[in-house]
Backbone:
């Protein structure tokens, strides 16, 4: 995830406990790319979603978003349908890690979630961690990322982080 | 300040004396696991990391169990990818159809997970191994790729919650009922980011199979891991299986818990989770009249010997209701073989149930028993989310093997004593 990015898009508002089985149903799990997975994103919850979502739109949900399976296909499907960011009151543990690892921006911001309805226009500043609801005019501060997540993000994701570590150990071992 | 069992295992794998909730650790892993759904992404990430060899060929395990025997060409391609990677890396533990089991039944059975171990798996039910007194947790494919490459992962030390089970365990009540009841009480995020530690005289008396069932569903309360203290039952169970030496650890008496919850089991009825959340739990007598089209007995939650024994005892000499499709999915080849040896296979077949080779199959609506729109199943699996077993307009009720088997006979969800006295 690149920091310093400002995202703007329309909100798609959902409830609590949105699990990874509805984010991307298991019947599609033999696919592995965002392009293949994206068109099926949330189809069991909201069959219209994947057709209507516009690039840059933002998913907003209540507590425990991404619960259930560890499938990394879930954040990949969300990326694949063009969503730029997920804002939730809270995230399930594995989904949180997976999103950081695959570069899907996520923000924990319960106050903003309360303020947002589907169709509201949102502006998100990832670096400042702010969510601005352009429709209501309200602005909110999200929870900051823990330091170690920042480190992974600043190195360009987990893949880059490990790549550097492997390079260092090869150099050291030679 | 005392340490919990979870904290002690994390400290030992981080090379530290003690650790505290909230701290970030780089820990060494004893085992890294992936399956035919998550390994393809993990292998791709592994290659993108520039990794060439796994950190240890005996500590990376691949289990093709979800869509196997390959349900279609895409699944076959994914399995081929695992097979090639296993061969290329010289993995010591890779299991083909015919020897495979559902990963969380198979790994403990094969003696690959031991008390005091730290295990990560690209599957959320990796938390099952807490039954053995190990710390184990689910991660995503990219995290798993890091574990395969470096033998390490980042983990945040969770706060622990203590669950103490007391009282007299009534007939027909097993591990599944205890964990369903617990999740019903605290909710699907009641233990989010936390460790669930299970203790008390009731769990001390519980079989290993029932402990696996309970640890398996810790993630359904949002927990990072579920854990039991290893004891003499654990030792006996590991006899002849353990491939390495192991260590028994336990929580200090003054260990710190975020919360302590006591559950008196004496009046507990068999528990059922109604659609569409594992926390939507009621005693079976309060479920009402719920007719079912399909009954699924098996999975990584209840696909072990004890579960098969209970189901067989209910189905012996009885018939599956004409309207119902009953399907039995043993968790491993070894469980299946025992079913044959002990004559339970005959019981299931005579009752009119279908018995499958070990696979995740219907548990995740993958294959071999997918539900149509409007159909309803009672299953001994762990998730009843919308569309979990097939069409988004189908329904899954979760229960233990006794309720599931009895419901297969009655054609509706019933208390086992209604069928089997
Ligand atoms: S049996 Fe079900 S819950 Fe268990 S590993 Fe397989 S798909 Fe996952």
Residues:
């Amino acid at each position: 995830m690149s920091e310093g990015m400002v995202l703007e898009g329309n909100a798609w508002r959902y409830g609590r406990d949105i699990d990874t089985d509805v984010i991307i149903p298991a019947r599609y799990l033999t696919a592995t790319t965002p392009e293949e997975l994206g068109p099926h994103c949330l189809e069991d919850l909201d069959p219209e979603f994947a057709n209507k979502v516009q690039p840059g739109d933002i998913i907003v949900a209540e507590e425990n978003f991404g619960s259930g399976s560890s499938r990394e296909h879930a954040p990949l499907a969300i990326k694949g349908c063009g969503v730029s960011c997920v804002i939730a009151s809270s995230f399930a543990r594995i989904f949180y890690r997976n999103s950081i690892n695959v570069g899907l921006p996520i923000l924990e911001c319960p106050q903003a979630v309360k303020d947002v309805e589907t169709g509201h226009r949102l502006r998100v500043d990832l670096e400042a961690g702010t969510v601005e609801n352009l429709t209501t005019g309200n602005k909110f501060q999200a929870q900051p990322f823990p330091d170690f997540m920042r480190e992974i993000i600043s190195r360009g994701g987990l893949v880059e982080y490990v790549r550097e570590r492997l390079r260092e150990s090869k150099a050291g071992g030679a | 300040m005392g340490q919990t069992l979870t904290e002690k295992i994390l400290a030992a794998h981080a090379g530290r004396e003690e650790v505290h909730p909230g701290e970030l650790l780089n820990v060494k892993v004893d085992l890294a696991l992936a399956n035919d759904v998550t390994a393809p992404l993990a292998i791709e990430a592994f290659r993108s990391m520039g990794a060439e060899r796994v950190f240890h060929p005996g500590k990376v395990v691949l289990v093709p169990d979800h869509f196997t025997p390959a349900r279609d060409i895409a699944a076959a391609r994914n399995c081929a990818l695992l097979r090639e990677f296993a061969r290329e890396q010289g993995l010591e533990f890779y299991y083909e159809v015919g020897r495979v089991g559902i990963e969380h039944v198979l790994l403990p059975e094969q003696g690959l997970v031991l008390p005091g171990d730290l295990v990560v798996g690209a599957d959320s039910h990796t938390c099952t191994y807490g039954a053995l007194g190990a710390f184990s947790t689910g991660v995503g494919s990219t995290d798993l790729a890091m574990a395969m490459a470096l033998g390490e992962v980042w983990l945040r030390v969770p706060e622990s919650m203590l669950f103490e089970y007391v009282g007299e365990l009534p007939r027909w009540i097993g591990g599944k009922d205890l964990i369903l009841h617990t999740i019903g009480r605290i909710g699907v995020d009641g233990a989010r980011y936390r460790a669930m530690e299970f203790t008390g005289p009731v769990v001390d008396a519980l079989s290993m199979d029932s402990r696996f069932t309970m640890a398996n569903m810790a993630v359904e309360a949002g927990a990072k891991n579920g854990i039991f203290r290893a004891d003499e039952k654990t030792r006996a169970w590991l006899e002849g299986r353990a491939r390495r030496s192991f260590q028994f650890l336990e929580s200090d008496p003054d260990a710190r818990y975020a919360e302590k919850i006591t559950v008196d089991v004496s009046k507990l009825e068999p528990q059922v989770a109604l659609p569409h959340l594992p926390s939507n739990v009621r005693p079976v007598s309060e479920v009402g009249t719920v007719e079912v089209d399909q009954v699924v007995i098996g999975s990584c939650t209840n696909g072990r010997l004890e579960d098969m024994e209970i189901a067989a005892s209910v189905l012996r000499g009885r018939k599956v209701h004409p309207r119902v499709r009953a399907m039995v999915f043993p968790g491993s080849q070894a469980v299946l073989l025992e079913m044959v040896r002990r004559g339970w296979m005959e019981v299931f077949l005579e009752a009119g149930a279908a018995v499958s080779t070990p696979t995740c199959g219907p548990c995740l609506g993958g294959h071999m028993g997918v539900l149509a729109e409007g159909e309803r199943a009672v299953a001994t699996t762990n998730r009843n989310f919308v569309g979990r077993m097939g069409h988004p307009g189908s329904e899954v009720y979760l229960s233990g093997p006794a309720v599931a088997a009895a419901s297969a006979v009655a054609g509706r969800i019933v208390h086992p004593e209604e069928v089997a006295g």
